[in-house]
Amino acid sequence: MISIDYSGKIVLITGGGRGIGLGIAKAFAEAGATLIITYTSTNPAATAQAIEKQYGVKVHVYYCPAEKSDLVDEMVEEVAAEVGEIDVVIANAGVSLWRDAIDMTDAELLNIMQINLFAPMYLTRAVVRQWLKVPVSLHSSSSDRGLRDQKLHLGKKILFVSSISGIVAMTPQKQAAYNASKAGLTMLAKSLAGEWAGYGITVNAISPGYIQTDMIANPPPGEGEEWVKIWKSMTPVDRWGTAEDVANHIVLLCSDRAGSFMTGSDIVVDGGYTIF
Ligand SMILES: NC(=O)c1ccc[n+]([C@@H]2O[C@H](COP(=O)([O-])OP(=O)(O)OC[C@H]3O[C@@H](n4cnc5c(N)ncnc54)[C@H](O)[C@@H]3O)[C@@H](O)[C@H]2O)c1
After folding, report:
1. Is Ubl conjugation set as a keyword in this record (predicted)?
2. Which of 6, 115, 129, 191 is buried most, with the most CB atoms less than 10 Å from its CB?
3. pLDDT of 69-86, one tens digit each?
């Protein structure tokens, strides 16, 4: 029997308080992991307590806007000091934007790129600096190279929650910036996988199709009803995905059972949307 056990492992999930992130948090908790959940707007303390009670694991909650690299550096340092060394990083936090390209403001474009694309870079840069024992601070003038020149077998796992929007441009809604941010994120996973393979760190992406969360819950009145019909008609399994549909793959992918040979991959979990 294959069993997956995360006892003694620390898993960090950005935006783990709701939606797909919450599904991921619960799936790791069920497998025995200690969780770090980051949040911005709503403190998920009550949700964290409920997970602790249901699964008998520790859940630590940290405020951390994903796009603020200085706060990300601080949070990663605090986690190491207060909880311990992170084993698995899930960069899940993301935002969508349905907007015609010609109506998009600079601020909107920057915001979506910062949260969806730059933030996973900030987070994994901070964590990998810590794993390699090089100074975390961006402003450090230290020449300490830590372990970066060594061949290592750290056995650490990084997973980006990307999207099939990074593979095909979703229709009929206009979301060029979101699509581009996710295409960039999937390529970032590949690129970092190449850079960090020699340290025993795997970096993979997962690309969900339409998953029933707040992100797709409120298409604009009127035309939104038509969108939903089209989204469903383009999904061969004829249902929305659930957070669990995504989370269970992630738990396997980041486990010791998955080994270290799969890296730089993008796992598509989309009910068949990208078949045709
Ligand atoms: N729902 C879908 O159909 C779908 C499909 C493909 C990919 N995704 C991706 O899955 C991930 C989770 O989305 P979801 O569907 O659960 O949506 P959601 O809106 O329910 O959750 C998004 C999470 O990201 C967090 N977040 C947003 N901005 C943040 C910031 N600046 N700093 C830190 N955290 C922030 C939110 O607090 C929330 O926890 C996203 O990256 C999204 O792009 C979703």
Report:
1. no
2. 6
3. 999 999 999 999 999 999
